[in-house]
Amino acid sequence: MAGGGGGKKMRMRFSKLYTFGGRFKGTQSLRSSDQEQLLGGKGFSRVVFCNQTERHAVKPYKYRNNYVSTTKYNVLTFLPKALFEQFRRVANLYFLLAAALALTPVSPYSAASLIAPLVFVVGVSMCKEALEDWRRFRQDNEINSRKVKVHVKEGRFESKPWKKLSVGDIVRVEKDNFFPADLVLLSSSYPDGVCYVETMNLDGETNLKLKRALERTAVVDEEAEFGSFHAHIKCEDPNPNLYTFVGNLEYGEEILSLGPEQVLLRDSKLRNTTHVFGVVIFTGHETKVMQNATDPPSKRSRIERKMDSIIYFLFAVLVLISVIGSIAFGVRTKLYSPSWWYLRPDQTTIYYDPKRPGLAGLLHLITALILYGYLIPISLYVSIELVKVLQARFINNDLAMYDPETDKPAHARTSNLNEELGQVDTILSDKTGTLTCNQMEFIKCSIAGLAYGRSVTEVERATARRLGKDHLHMLQYDDSVMTPVDPGSPPDSVVAGSVGGSGIELATIGHHHHPLAPKPPPHVKGFNLKDERLMNGQWIHEPNVECIRLFFQILAVCHTAIPEVDEVTGKVTYEAESPDEAAFVVAAREFGFEFVKRTQTSVFVKEPAVGPSSGVEWTLREYKILNLLEFNSTRKRMSVVVRDEAGRILVMCKGADSIIYDRLGKEGKGFWEATKEHLAKYGDAGLRTLAIAYRQLEESEYTDWNQVFVKAKTTIGANRDELLEQAAERIEQDLFLLGATAVEDKLQKGVPETIDRLAKAGLKLWVLTGDKQETAINIGFACSLLRQGMQQLIISLDSADVKAAEDSGDKVQISKVSRASVEEQIASALRQIAQDADSDASHALIIDGKSLMYALEDGMKKQLLDLAVQCASVICCRVSPKQKAQITKLVKEGTGKTTLGIGDGANDVGMIQEADIGVGISGVEGMQAVMASDFSISQFRFLERLLIVHGHWCYKRIALMICYFFYKNITFGLTLFYFEALTSFSGQTAYNDWYMSLFNVFFTSLPVIALGVFEQDVSSRVCLQFPAVYQQGPQNMFFRWGRILGWMINGVYSSLVVFFLVMGSFGLAAFQKNGQGAGLEEVGAVMYTCIVWVVNVQVAFALSYFTVIQHAVIWGSVALWYLFLVIYGYINPVYSTTAYKVFIETLAPAPMFWLITILVAVACVLPYTVYQAYQRMFHPMDHHVIQEIHYMQKHITDPKMYKREKRKAVQKTKIGFSARVDANLSMQRAKNRYYDPTFTADVKSLRDPPASNVDLFESPLFSSFKRTV
């Protein structure tokens, strides 16, 4: 039957299917006394006039419009907010003050020379901010301009953009469209007003939720009927609670109670329903999803914030030397000014008045503060901005992060945080759509004690690659039998199988088909089981054929899926509440049991006839649905009671293995031991498992039970759920176990390898998901965040005390008991970790959203963080978007380390914005996460390269660039101070004005920009081979105060060498051929030339990676200085002043000029060179060793040394498939030694065999494993 047929033609009422757990409870015409007291009070004052939007045009019923904005600025706030952002930078604030003082007579420079650079720097930065925010605005506009049908008048509906919606509007939403605002469901295309809703963007769950309209409004399901529809809604005020809603609908003379079942939230999607009608209750930023969002934050990197401290330090130095100079000037003015006849002391100004030396010194202080301003480089910020933009372009154009399937590259949405990518300590990740593909595949099963399915999971592939890397010969898995591989087979085609039963089950990875071999069947979405024993009807030749038949029948019948037939192709697809359920139905079809039709009371399955003698004969069988007991997180199982065509009454049940086991009869456990072993292997392979069981009932037994069940179902009262649970327990007993299913929650490509590499790089990964606990744990195993042997510390509110408090209904008591329970569980977990401190035990923290409500309170969150940071893995399940942001803030502020939030849905926006770095996955569902992010990628696997390669490079580049920038400005600025001291602090500068103006613009700017854009200490390939090098960033090894001060000391040393060697050389002999000494023009030009050479040679020595561009800009900058001297020297001396023909006439002909230049350059860089040589020789850093390995080809000439260093370049980790392999191999080694005392081989050799080409199959290790098998 079609999932969304039109209106009255659809007779199937879904409310009849769901009879358990109070999904639809009794009548809704009465409101509870509690709800009646709430409405109208504080927080519950909203009134909505349905179909009367004109009444919402005036207060007090005027509410916000539906326009949504995620931008940082608007037209009115851009100028003040952007200026505030710019002048948060201390250097900009200093130069603003200097520019103001430049308007006074005390300035040594013209006002234009100081104001113009400031305006340029601030203007460029503001333009960059405006451009980035404009892009956000365009993305917002795309969403705000989406269309939806809105009732206008007299039953007519017209399309309007989302932003035009108002509270009270009646809208019609079509299938597979997003809801434009928060709506109350009035009716749907189904007669009983139900609809399916996908909430993945809100809570990360891919399973569909059933929503149901009130019975009173469900009949209003034609457009024309809404012309006369009027009602009032009184409900709660806007709030971020996704799972609660309190309200009443006043329709006619009736007052009907509204709950979360009637609310359709913005950014959730309508599925499996042709259309719904709803009334808008919350719009725009008042919707629940936007209430969970936070304002776009202004993020600054740690390096940029530390730059402020450096600026403060340099400003203190500037003030100090200015004060020293001013005091000296005041003293000399008082003592010596009367004898300076050439200054006319009898007619002097206040600047040189010996009678007022204090005032003269104070005015000189202002002059000195401006004069020595070159210590604080104003061009630093604009250079960094330019470098970051170019770095972002490299990220955007990196083909290794381009996804051809979606045609989406990586995108740096802001360039302010490039270097922060290299300092990440903790990654907080969403699950659905980020780690997983939202696709379930039926991949293995166990039936009647036999395991079926040879397909390989992502976890097994990743483990196989890891084990196979260092093997010359591999093992092939074939149902737990190890066979040698043909040495001539492709190296990546096969990988090892079960290593001595350790649970590391590996199988064929590559698929190398012979040209003449038949092509494999096309892939079926949701099904990937490869086993010829079950396919194509071959299961009828297997032992226990009736068990297999029943197993397949349960898969085809025990569900709530709906078949949809494509009218064009005739192909049947299934819409199910969960992807697992859809995978089961598809699997049943592939096995020959095709679910084709559902009616109000029956399920029809096309299945093969009983006997195989006459070939395959298909028949359509009807299973009458007598009762359905649906799955929920408390029951952890689902059952249907059916009557087949033979008249048998069967209870078909599927659920968690622990739950099913407790309900097996004595005769139903025959296959339990074998099934249990298979379940353990499936779990280790990262698969989601369910046990399958059944029971046959006698007619009288069913009749008696059904009377109890119907009575419980029709009960109206607080104990209804309890009575239904008791009835279910009564029927779900004495079950017979048939087997188990294993479904792979399809991980995104490369997720296990990425997590493993990130773990090796020393990064921590927390998973924050809205999924239920069981799903989160399964994904934890699939991603190798969890593994067998890891102790799970589960914090939840499932204790008996909490349930008793909840049954009492006393909210104060519930809160008190819950808080005490969470506190005790955290304390107990901390004690357990303390007890295991001396062992190699690893722990995983798993906590749900209800527990987090209390754990995140001020009195408890510190203990929660202490517990979490001591665990190898942290998984938070059933968390709301707000809680994701709260957890992120806790980690960020509590640890003081850099956090990265990554997700793909609207429910991840708060987390992405709260984290130091937000990464959005540009997936198939919505763009909210991308719009709120700092960086976007199309697949989680690209995060590895974004961090380990680009993050490492950007951090090293920016850190080195800033240190070098301060070095060169200190070198240049202090020579001004020395010359001032030499000239009695008179305010005379050593250099021509244009020399000073162009120092940071032309002669030293391009080399430092090239350093920031192109420098690579190691290549991208090496970064990924030696991931521990990444830790240089989180440990901040290149921007510590020690390193910064080291560069500053180098600058001080260089300035001293430049000044005193130049001035000393001029005092030794005549500078020109005619015997004349050097004047101010020659001194300034020579000193400046030496500085240009020194700072450019220094940057050349600081680089690790040279390209043609680096050579061009470094030596080109030096050449540009000489060219400038020549050209500028020919300009009229009115403009060129001290530079007039100074190079042609005096400098170039003087040998001393060239000698001094060489001598000073060598003397300045010599200490740095000696230090670098000493460090590389005796105290090498990681990248020094790696550089030596690759430049000297050690991976070829000395492979043992190469492997040793490669192992050292991996952080010790307890997560990732490498840790899983290590743990399994350790257990295997212990197991073999226990059972076989002669086993002495080191299992480590399995991963790192000797360099010689020894055949693995002839080794004692392999022989010992064969003995074990």
Automatic annotation (TrEMBL):
Return the Pfam families for the record: Cation_ATPase, E1-E2_ATPase, PhoLip_ATPase_C, PhoLip_ATPase_N
The record's Gene3D superfamilies line, in alphabetical order, gives:
Calcium-transporting ATPase, cytoplasmic domain N, Calcium-transporting ATPase, cytoplasmic transduction domain A, HAD superfamily/HAD-like
Q: What is its EC number?
A: 7.6.2.1
Q: What is its main location?
A: membrane
Q: Where is the P-type ATPase N-terminal domain?
A: 48-113
Query: Do the record's keywords include Membrane?
Result: yes
Q: Which domain of life is it from?
A: Eukaryota
Cell inner membrane among keywords: no
| InterPro entries associated with the record | ATPase_P-typ_cyto_dom_N (IPR023299), ATPase_P-typ_P_site (IPR018303), ATPase_P-typ_TM_dom_sf (IPR023298), ATPase_P-typ_transduc_dom_A_sf (IPR008250), ATPase_P-type_domA (IPR059000), HAD-like_sf (IPR036412), HAD_sf (IPR023214), P-type_ATPase_IV (IPR006539)
Residues of the P-type ATPase C-terminal domain: 930-1180
Under the heading NCBIfam families, the entry gives:
ATPase-Plipid, ATPase_P-type
According to UniProt, the name of this protein is: Phospholipid-transporting ATPase
Question: What is the organism field in this record?
Answer: Sphagnum troendelagicum
Q: What is the lineage of its organism?
A: Eukaryota, Viridiplantae, Streptophyta, Embryophyta, Bryophyta
